[in-house]
Amino acid sequence: MVVYVPEGCRVENPIYLKYISVEGGDEGSKKMPLSSPRVFVFIEKGGDIGIVEEFVGKEGSECYWTNSILEVVVGEGGGGKVRHSYVQKQSLSAAHIKWTSVRQVGTGGKLSRHNVHVQQVGSDTVTTELMTFHLSVGDQTQDLRSRIVLDHPRGYSQQFHKCIVAHSSELAVFYGNVKVNRYETDAGQLTRSLLLEPRATVNVKPNLQIIADDVKCSHGAAIRQPTLLLSSMWD
Predict the structure, then answer these.
(1) CA distances from 205 to 128, 172, 178, 222 (A)
(2) Closest CA to 84 of 2, 150, 15
(3) How many Cβ atoms are within 10 Å of 128's Cβ, its own excluded?
């Protein structure tokens, strides 16, 4: 399925996508029907859309496997907005694999800020992997503000942010907050920055808020100068 939002178009009501698994195998059998829905969303400059995905299936203990992908591309020029909600209520004997990929393309702007908010809710393991890259050239400020909230047991999240600042009048900013509210959670956060000019500036603040016990969490930041080997930083 392809969803295209033209330049300047605002979709007032969210698009609701409901996936229903109608076939399943008995518990303990070798039968496991597979469905692999894929949705591609392209948003032009100034476009605005909301998408709600819900996954349901036959009640009881039947076995089936859902392997779903949502890919979102926000086009060059900025101003595009997408709001995404995801609900999974399938059988307790089912296998459910979900990938959500968001790619933003930006080549200009004196000031650019990206605000990212991810919240994990539910009763079982959910995985979030967030990888971002900033390249500042010319007189630019690139700013990333992210917040990840882990609100259920056995949550897993990994965030990796890279940044290159290539001009003496540039500034890069990273503020990442990870809040761990439940037990048996594994959360990691790492940011690496490379300054190619003596007066180039980067402000980074990885931040962990650990509320629960019995968790595995780590965070760190590294800022390098070009005199060091690049391979050691970007491997």
Answers:
(1) 20, 12, 11, 11
(2) 15
(3) 17
Beta-bridge mates of residue 79: none
What does DSSP say about strands 216-224 and 95-104: parallel, antiparallel, or unpaired? Answer: unpaired
Contact 8, 45 (CB under 8 A): yes
- Which tokens sit at 99? 């990938």
Q: Which two tokens stand for residue 82?
A: 């997408």
Q: What is the separation, in whole angstroms, between the first and last Cα of the chain?
A: 35
Alpha carbon distances (Å) from 138 to 168, 171, 212: 8, 10, 44
Q: How many CA atoms lie within 13 A of 159 on its CB side?
A: 28
pLDDT digits (tens, 9 = 90+) for 17-63: 999 988 888 777 778 889 999 999 999 888 999 999 999 987 777 88
